[in-house]
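Incident review: delayed structure delivery

Summary: a single-chain prediction request sat in the queue longer than the usual turnaround. Root cause was a stuck worker, restarted by the on-call engineer. No data loss occurred. The affected request and its eventual output are reproduced below so the record is complete for anyone auditing the incident later.

Affected input:
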Amino acid sequence: MRLDNFLSKILNISRTQASDLIRQKEIFVNNSLSLHKDQQVSNTDEVRYRDKILEYEEYVYYLLNKPSGYVCDTSRSLYPSVFTLIKDYRQDLACAGRLDVDSVGLVLITNDGALVHQVIANNFITKTYYVELAKSLTDEQVQQLEAGCEIYLDKEKTIYLTKPAKVQRLTNESIYLTISEGKFHQVKKMLKYVDNEVTLLKRVAIGNIKLPEIPLGTYLKITKPTI
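Output delivered after worker restart:
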């Protein structure tokens, strides 16, 4: 990897800023001053910046317990991004499946693009949600949720039949709902289809990954998970 690219990823700065650090004689590679931004470095090289050794990890994985009021992207918004909660944020991070701004729970954040694609594109990977409801579900409504619901994908133009789901009753007004896809506002639209309303939506699992017992707004760094 080029030295300026390495510095950009580790220090969360632009490559232009990384080049400036090199030009200002701030960077040492294997105890030698480096003056070339295109110098190649690897995990076996020791890179120092202001007497601090910079350690590069090719892939990182975080399990975030997302609080309400945060969005799962970096677009300009009225709401802060979940990435502001990651202390070791780097520019190549992405969410493997988003949650709505008012939803809470498990978000997998990583720079492993293949894993992000696997979670988003694979309809065999389930997502489980704890759902609190405005009113009780009848047995018939549970059967409707499990068989598939007709929801709108856009502004009431395209109707989509959701794939079969699994419902586990917890109380009269709370369930676990497991689905294998993630259309926009899907859970809320499914409950609306059966004449109900979501009052709390919390993702508790993505495939084999369970939401860790950590406070809202905090995260756990893990090794590469098995989905």
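Verification: The mean pLDDT is 94.
Action items: add queue-age alerting; document worker restart procedure.
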